[in-house]
From TrEMBL, chains A, B:
It is an enzyme of class 1 (oxidoreductase). InterPro entries: ABM_dom (IPR007138), Dimeric_a/b-barrel (IPR011008), Jasmonate_Hydroxylase-like (IPR052936). SUPFAM superfamilies: Dimeric alpha+beta barrel. Keywords: Monooxygenase, Oxidoreductase. Its EC number is 1.14.-.-. Residues 32-90 form the ABM domain. This is Antibiotic biosynthesis monooxygenase. One of its GO terms (molecular function) is monooxygenase activity. The lineage of its organism: Bacteria, Pseudomonadati, Pseudomonadota, Betaproteobacteria, Burkholderiales. The keyword Signal does not apply. The keyword Oxidoreductase applies. It comes from Roseateles violae.
């Protein structure tokens, strides 16, 4: 697949290894400022060194999963230290989240499939 | 946090290392049988050796992320080979998915936070 970047909602299939931050959260019913902050954090993350992409969704039940992809653990640590990101996390704990889990994982293989192609991506990496 | 298992929607924070299968997909508008099959696959996965847990959500835009957790790569390969799982994947490509990406990643650190606790989990693992 050469058009992976164009698949709506999906991050490109970079060549492993790289890193994923899996952030799973359940929201409170407090909405004030949440949408704007979420958008701002996606934009700010995309400006960081080592950022590769993001996939994010939230269901009607308030459960959300955001997976961001990074070139290295160092890039993830640097993003974690960004002051505006810290402030957002503080506000998240104060207002927006009931609970969350965060996992840092090393991506070792990836593949994809698109209806436009009709066949599974042969590059099982 | 001693009640991690009880947090709705979140898989327990197992001791790393273990493995995550990150399945990101965009659905078609075809609904026939999808919900039942999705529930069946969650139940069937939970019966497999090496299964640890699952987190899954889908937004109103049709983008879904399911992360399942496994003890080993061998457990993931065995689950992939289960005949009923294969059949579900075939039907997914025929009917339910516009495109998807699947990544296999080794979880190296994890932590969590719950409003019930009020402080970030000190066990940064």
């Amino acid at each position: 697949m050469n058009d992976r970047d164009a698949l709506p909602g999906l991050a490109p299939l970079f060549e492993p290894p790289y890193y994923a931050v899996i952030f799973t959260s359940l929201r409170t019913t407090v909405d004030a400022g949440y949408g704007e902050m979420a958008e701002r954090m996606v934009a700010l993350a995309a400006e960081q060194p080592g950022y590769l992409g993001v996939e994010s969704t939230r269901g009607a039940d308030g459960l959300g999963i955001t997976v961001s992809y990074w070139q290295s653990l160092e890039a993830i640590q640097a993003w974690r230290a960004v002051a505006e990101h810290r402030a957002a996390r503080d506000q998240g704990r104060a207002d927006w989240y009931r609970h969350y889990a965060l996992r840092i994982a090393r991506v070792e293989r990836s593949y994809g499939w698109s209806r436009a192609d009709g066949v599974e991506d042969p590059t099982l990496r």
